[in-house]
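Re: [help] complex structure
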Amino acid sequence: MQVLTSDSSIERSSIDLAIELRSIDKSFGSVHAVRDVSMRIEAGRVTGIVGENGAGKSTLMSILYGLYRADAGEILVGGAAMQMDSPRDAIAHGIGMVHQHFMLIDSFTVLENLVLGAEGGALLANGLAAARAELGRLSREYGLTVDPDALVADLSVGEQQRVEILKVLFRGARILILDEPSAVLTPQEADQLFRILATLKAHGVTVVLITHKLREIMAATDAVYVMRQGEIVAGRATSDTNPEELAELMVGRKVLTHLDKAPPRRGEVVLRAEHLSLVDARGVRLLEDIGLELRAGEIVGIAGVSGNGQTELLQVLAGIRAPTGGRLEVCGRTIDAEHPVDPAEMRELGLAHVPEDRLRQGMVADFRASETSILGYHEDEPFSNHWLLDGPAVGKHCTELMQRFDVRPRAPGLHSASFSGGNQQKLVLAREMDQAPKVLLVGQPTRGVDIGAIEFIHRELVKSRDAGCAVLVVSVELEEILSLADRILVMFAGRIVGDVDAAAANERQLGLMMAGAQAT
Amino acid sequence: MMDEVLSIAFLMSAATLRVATPLILCAMGGLFSERSGIIDVGLEGKMLMAAFFAAATASATGSAWAGVGAGVIAAEALALLHGFACITHRGNQVVSGVALNILAAGLTVVLGNAWFKQGGLTPPLTANERLMPLAFPNAGDSILVYVALLSVPFTWWLVGRTRFGLRLRAVGELPLAVDAAGISVAGLRYRAVLLCGLLAGLAGAYIAIAQNAGFTRDMTAGQGFIALAALIFGKWRPFSAFGACLMFGLLDAIAIRLQGLKVPGIGEVPVQLFQALPYLLTMFLLAGFIGRAVAPKAIGVPYTKEH
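Output below.
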């Protein structure tokens, strides 16, 4: 990922305040989400707010944007106290927000989305024409190119985010709040986003960036506030701090940046792929000539920029998709185009899979945690006798998993969707690891997971390795691969282009391979 | 021979339009409601209630237009009730709609008995109390037939070409986005159900005081559901839904025309078969053909904002 340098040499005292929050307080029922928060956001600067999931960052910004009403406290915009009763008030005061989940209507064109709420008259024709002209101007000025007549559903996630930013600028906002903007982006799209933010800043736009990625804070912000459990625990000029300090402030204890692990004790080969390939219905080659070996007792990391075949490789290895060429051997069973396998059979062979998209493939959001904890194994003893589920047994099993994997809250009856990303992931991981699999496939083990949980998940994966399991980790986070894996494979354009020992690997070398600059 | 064919075709198309009029009005009404995200199973009840109050008022006042007004007001009352249950209190929209249908079916008969003591009927309307056919442009058509025809391009224009329409479509797809843009979700949805009430009210009035001369028990006979089917079959688009209404109307007109027809080898085809055709077609179409119809994304989902 390209790192942008921030300009921290500007004289701080001459800067005006765009927004000041004074003693903001907000509770939802018994949950005290934001406690007595005061914050100063300087005009024309990029201010970051970091904190773990559930620290109150998004709630605070929703209050500023008028989506929630604060129980107590004051909001000052440009020095004057404001009442934010609805987003309309915030928009009127030049505040715009790009939400984590886009507020775009898929079946509308870019232009229609742009004018929604600012149509410029009862009839659309004039408003749309004016908006088209304004969109052209904004696109040129800020380098945000997008086709005004494209349907939003046809745009990539990065383009959709650009439309969101344009929407905010179109309403004349001079203060832009971005809630976890890079969470849904590929690394390239994220780089592009941060270049856009730099352009906006150069044009005098005030940016508030909410994130839990420290690298982004260091790269893109001028000042940073750290939130923990609803409170501001620190405010710093970005140039006066470093990632280690911020991480420590976020979790309130020293983070293990280095994962302690013994050298692997490799056993026999449990999974072998030879000349594996996958061509989809349209004839697009997704995987080409993949060869890999996975041994018991090692962690193999697959690095690569997302979209280079890692998702498809996981699907083939897990039995979700059948390969169109080559062969795959898993625990003695041979799989090829003529002899496909289904995920249930894979599970019986001793292969467990923690999917990349845990919300869609790893669990059912509306199911209770106890149900999620047996998904895929729900027909096995002791959960079921093939006719009826044994509720108490399932509940007991879930409680045990929750204790072992520190899933919070320990509430087997709660809907799976109600848990934070980290706790959902721990639950899915617990379910798969509990089967003591011979092969464990893990896609993006810590995507959307907070720092405390990342550390825990990494340690569990190493423990599993030490117990003799063959672990395959796919991640777009290079640091994660470097700290977890014993051996690293690099994917580019559907091929494995690199195979290096983790001890000998460095970020620069891997980065070159991920960019397709080097082929083996 | 040629003349005969042409004249039958002309008579059929005129009949089709007359039969389709309440379907068209109702489907356009339902379109507003459903595009805003509010399912309207209660079209039938709104129409029935409007039919009763239109006939009762026309009979009591002697004015057809007072009847139309009363019909619209009655349908609007049910529309507001639906809105109150589904928008303000976030109730289940299908349950609320079904409840309205049951309410209308019962209340019209009870009130009819209490007021007119004719077994649930309203007194037969005289020519003055009815919306009489116009002489021009096509002799025999009521003015509401033309209102129905005009309601289609009007709906298309309002939904597709105006600020209100853009917001209406948006609120049916992603109400959160509408809220975030600073527009009231509830306000938009109330306006949508009121428009629905207006059009369903006109449809009911048409049935009672233009097509017929008074109210009879359950006289809407499921046409509200057929209109709903036409709306879904037309993928929630005005002109497509209009086409579906005409198709159902044509089937009905054919059924009327073919009554008593003798088919060689079979004999007289039972009237009931023809009368059941539109309903059978509805089931057939809904079950098979439009499986992939794309409904407004937020349809049926109450909008909740946490505070």
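Chain A has three domains: 44-63+86-251, 256-350+437-520, 363-435.
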